[in-house]
Amino acid sequence: MKVLSRRILLPIAIVFCVCAPNAARAQAPLEPAQMSPRTMFYLIWRGVPSPDVRKANALLALWDDADFAPVRSAMAAGMLGSSEEKSGQPKITPEQFQEFAGLLENSFTAGYVGAPVRRNLSNGAAVADAKTPAWNGMFFVYDRTGKEMLLTKAILLMRASVKEPQQISQVNVGGVQVLKTEGKGGASYWAEHGKYAVIAGERTVMEDLLGRLDGKAAGAASLGQSAAYQEAQANLGSGLIEFFLRIPDLKNFAEDSKAGMFQVRPLLDAARLDAVHSLSGHVTFEGAKTHVQAAILGDAAPGTPFDIWSTGQPSPASLAFVPADAISYTSAQLNLQGIYDTVKRVARAAFPQTQQGNVDLVDTMAQQKLGMPVPDALGLLTGEFASMQTSPSMDTAKQVYFLAIRKKPETLRLMRTVFSEQITSERNEGDVTFLKISLGGKQSGAGTAAWNFFNVAVTQDMILGATRIETIREVLAGRANASTTAGLASVPQFQAGRAQFPGNLSGLGYFDFQKVDWQAARDRWMQDVKKSAMAKTVSASKEAVPTTAPDWLGQMNLQVVSRHLHYSSSVSWKDTKGIHWDQWVE
């Protein structure tokens, strides 16, 4: 049944949004208030939205559009084909795929229950019982109302395709007759109980689930009462899709663990992973808009993994370079010094006191390579990384990358040290320094050397990079004429999206679907695939078969994207509770 359950869950996961349009939205069969307090992860699918919702929502309308069918089919064929080739099991036909898509009309809850822990009498710590077999806390609860026959058909098909010998028996679990399947991969349990189909990888998990579904566990402890869930509750409890991952107390499982020659417990203590409590999020459809929210929550104090992210700023420095007609723009701000301090702290914890010099040796080697202490080098960078695309055909030559800096002279000295043998030219034009950096070369089919170069411009506060120098010059010219040329920050929908969120942001993203020339983009992508395939053929062997463009790309009318989607905007920010993400697609 373990293999069987996976064969059922895989098609369900793949056809997550391929659903019949006539079902009403349902509640989840198992809500957090009903789940075991040991639940580490859950995913809730609350059933297919009503036809009116699907028609009104831009993203769902795109998915349902007949012109998008080649993508839907390619996704299903690719995922199912890859899995089945590995398993050696027969493929599900497109007709069966479409039929089983109807299972997604109903709601389900999938999740994982952590293994019980025992007390170590010597020190009182809770540790996993090493004498028991490997724990499989997977569970799946499906509301099969109106889908009984289709579900039975799916089970019979999956069972017939299982090639590994399995032993099937009926067992009584909590007063319910349950089908137990044992095979090389272990045992699993299946029950059709009332309106629910229930799968579990452990007998105790199955018994607990059945009791909670029957209401026999009323008043018992639940996930909903846990501190981590309650901390994340503002980000949960709604949406068509909802997920929650509770970060376990890793110390309980690392008392005697080792990673190679290192003890795990000191590494976890140094990394302060205990400060991270959960990852959660949900997806809602609000008219034409799709709203995605997620967060990593915990104690975002200095010296914790949250040091990865910067506290942010109201407006990224790179935004001043982005024109109003930009197709896309993304910016992220990292705390480079915080990342460095964390890595060094963990590295020190990996070595005993008598070997601490190993960490200092690595630091010394890095300093020799950089020509300055690592903290000084990191201090030259603000931590902002950004990119933008201005080509309607998504030409990679028009992609520009940004790296914000603080001190231009010191930054140039660092670049000359790091790229000393790769800088092929350097010249100043006003207050901008242009560098040409060699990325290496290779022998072409004609026997001539073909070299790859990356062009860089260094201003007082920014490093700009692109494959073509003309692209960089266009961006710099736009920045110079900022007083007369509107930038992306002046675009109404960009301003409206930015106004909804906190003053300081750690990340910012924007994509305008309407400005893309989808036909030109498809032609370019197909041309790039052919060039890449030809290059691989020449460099590998004469017998190599060139890779072809995916079938769906040639079959699909890409204008269907702009027919439904207008733009997407996203932000992220950090506060004392953690890091938060918010995105709108409309």
Write a structural description.
The protein folds into 3 domains: 2-259, no CATH class; 299-516 and 559-585, no CATH class; 521-546. It is 32% helix and 28% strand. A hairpin with a 3-residue loop joins strand 20 (449-458) and strand 21 (462-466).
Summarize the structure.
This protein is an alpha+beta fold and 586 residues long. It is built from 18 helices and 24 strands.
| Low-confidence spans | 1-25, 82-86, 119-125, 442-450, 541-546
Percentage of residues assigned to helices: 25-40%
Could you give the count of β-strands?
24
Q: Beta-strand level of the residues, as a percent range? A: 25-35%
The backbone outline, from C-alpha atoms, is globular
The chain-level mean pLDDT equals 82
- Total count of domains: 3
Mind telling me the C-alpha Rg?
A: 28 Å
- What can be said about the biggest beta sheet? 20 strands, antiparallel
Distance between the termini: 42 Å
Number of helices: 18
Q: Supply the helix-strand structural class.
A: alpha+beta
What are the defining features of this structure?
586 residues; 20-stranded antiparallel β-sheet; alpha+beta; single chain; 3 domains
List the helices and strands and how they pair.
Elements: H1 2-14, E1 39-45, H2 51-56, H3 58-64, H4 69-87, H5 94-100, E2 108-113, E3 117-119, E4 126-128, E5 138-143, H6 148-161, E6 167-173, E7 176-183, E8 186-193, E9 196-200, H7 203-213, H8 227-232, E10 241-246, E11 258-259, E12 262-263, H9 264-271, E13 276-286, E14 289-298, E15 328-333, H10 336-350, H11 357-370, H12 374-379, E16 381-389, E17 399-405, H13 408-418, E18 423-429, E19 432-443, E20 449-458, E21 462-466, H14 469-480, H15 492-498, E22 507-512, H16 518-540, H17 551-555, H18 559-564, E23 567-575, E24 578-585
Antiparallel strand pairs: 1-2, 1-10, 2-5, 3-4, 5-9, 6-7, 7-8, 8-9, 10-13, 11-12, 13-14, 14-24, 15-16, 15-22, 16-17, 17-21, 18-19, 19-20, 20-21, 22-23, 23-24
